[in-house]
Design a protein that fits this description.
- The chain is mainly beta and 304 residues long.
- 12% of the residues lie in helices and 32% in strands.
- It has 5 helices and 17 strands.
- The chain has a 6-stranded mixed sheet with strand order 8-9-10-7-1-11. A 6-stranded antiparallel sheet has the order 13-14-15-12-17-16.
- Strand 3 and strand 4 form a beta hairpin.
- 42% of the residues are buried.
- InterPro entries: CAF17_C, GcvT/YgfZ_C, TrmE/GcvT-like, YgfZ/GCV_T_CS, YgfZ/GcvT.
- Keywords: Transit peptide.
Length: 304
């Protein structure tokens, strides 16, 4: 393979909606956890839609595309996201439509061609008939591209397919949640899943759906568990929602998404773990030993 070859992985489980209309920005600003005013053609954001009680419903990325906003979320749940957002439309002049012709791709370093111009979280450029964006949460998350499938070849880049495992290993090592695979809808709270440290919530923007609960959890330090990467010493990956226990059998959390590790002799997983168990050296899932690997960005309270 040429050293100038760019490896891309199609994130087939992700898709896009397009939000347009005279009021599209003010409409979205009052609903989601990120500050929509920061989004430009050169900067994108990661955000969430919550219940009025502050519980998670959807996570998605927001990109400016011309005079519209692209919302990149879980493909199988896009219609639910669309329905829930439009419940708040009232007299707002907005249109929210599915764009099935757009696909979502991911690529990791070394970057090639115009992608070399992206260096900071949220950096965004036009890419073919769509956009390319350095992951707004963390540059280590790689670059996300939302465009038609023919857009990448038309850029002139020499490309090859990236294995899904390589993308997933990088995502999990860096502690980046992937929708309902990692966050159970109508149960999780944003601060349990890194939205504070990863820029998915703005505490200065003003009101949005679920804002009161989210702010109270932050200022009163009410978070009791966190999503963290785990390493397992087995080639049999655990099922989602498998229990995590301490060595004495006491419950410590649950498994969410997982993939085989780089060696093929173990696995990486995302787990929702009690704060007081995150630094334990002998967690278990059934008989498999688990090692928590909190990423550098994750802030743990001193009183955990």
């Amino acid at each position: 393979m040429s050293p100038e070859t760019a490896l891309f992985h199609e994130l087939a489980h992700r898709g896009a909606l397009i939000l347009s209309g005279d009021d599209h920005r003010t409409f979205l600003q009052g609903l989601v956890s990120a500050d929509v005013r920061t989004i430009t053609e050169n900067h994108s954001a990661w955000t969430a839609l919550l219940t009025p009680q502050g519980k998670f419903l959807h996570e998605f990325f927001i990109y400016q595309h011309g005079n519209t906003l692209l919302l990149e979320g879980e493909r199988e749940r896009l219609e639910d996201l669309r329905t829930r957002l439009l419940r708040y439309r009232l007299r707002a002049k907005v249109t929210l439509e599915s764009v099935p012709e757009l696909a979502v791709f991911g690529t990791l370093p070394p970057f090639q061609g115009p992608l070399r111009n992206l260096s900071h979280a949220g950096d965004t450029i036009a890419f073919g008939d769509g956009i390319a964006c350095m992951d707004p949460r963390l540059p280590a998350g790689g670059i996300r591209i939302v465009a038609s499938r023919q857009a990448i070849p038309e850029t002139g880049l020499t490309t090859a397919d990236m294995a899904e495992a390589a993308w997933e290993q990088n995502r999990i090592r860096n502690g980046l949640p992937d929708g309902s695979r990692d966050i159970e809808p109508e149960k999780g709270f944003l601060l349990e899943y890194g939205f504070d440290e990863l820029g998915g919530v703005d505490f200065r923007k003003g009101c949005y759906v679920g804002q009161e609960t989210t702010a109270r959890m932050k200022w009163k330090h009410l978070t009791k568990k966190r999503l963290v990467p785990l390493r397992g010493e087995d080639t049999t990956m655990p099922q989602s929602n498998s229990p995590i226990t301490l060595s004495d059998g006491q419950p410590a959390g649950i498994i969410r998404s997982s993939t085989l590790d780089e060696t093929g002799t173990g696995f990486l997983a995302m787990g929702v773990v009690r704060l007081d168990a995150i630094l334990e050296t002998d967690l278990r899932c059934d008989s498999t030993r688990l090692k928590p690997c909190p990423p550098a960005w994750l802030r743990l309270p001193d009183n955990r």
